[in-house]
Amino acid sequence: VANEGGKHWTVNEVRALIRIWSDKSIQQQLEGTVRNKRIFEQVAARLQKFGIDRDWKQCRTKYKNLKHEYKSVKSAQDSGSTSKSMKFFNELDAILGHCTMEQASKSDNDESERPPEWTEAKPEKDSVG
C-alpha cells in the first residue's frame, strides 16, 4: 500500500491518532464534514505534542484507511465471517461502532424500515462458516 509521506505508521503512532480521534469534540467536528483539512491540522498538531511528526494529509489518509478497514472487518463480522480482523478493531469499534448506529437511527425513525438483524436478536452459532 502506497503511503503519503512514505513512512509507515508505528503502533504507538496509530494509538496516539486513535486516542485523539476518540475525543468527542474531534468526532463531532468530523461528523458530517467533507472539507476537514483544518480538523486534521489540529490532529497533526496534537500528535506533535506526543513527538509524532505527521502532517494533516498523512493523518487524514491514515484516518480514512483505518475507517475503511474497520468497516470491511465489521461488515464481514456482521455477515458471520470471523476470518477478517484488524489490529485496532476494538478501539475503533468504541469510536465508530456507536456513531454508525446513531446515524442510522437518526436518518431512519420508522422502525419497519430497519434491517431485520437490528430487531431480531439471534443467539450466536458455534459453527464456523
From TrEMBL:
Residues 7-95 form the Myb/SANT-like DNA-binding domain. Residues 105-129 have a biased composition (Basic and acidic residues). InterPro entries: Myb_DNA-bind_4. Residues 100-129 are annotated as: Disordered. Gene3D superfamilies: Homeodomain-like. Pfam families: Myb_DNA-bind_4. Coiled coil: none annotated. This is ZSC29 protein. It comes from Promerops cafer.
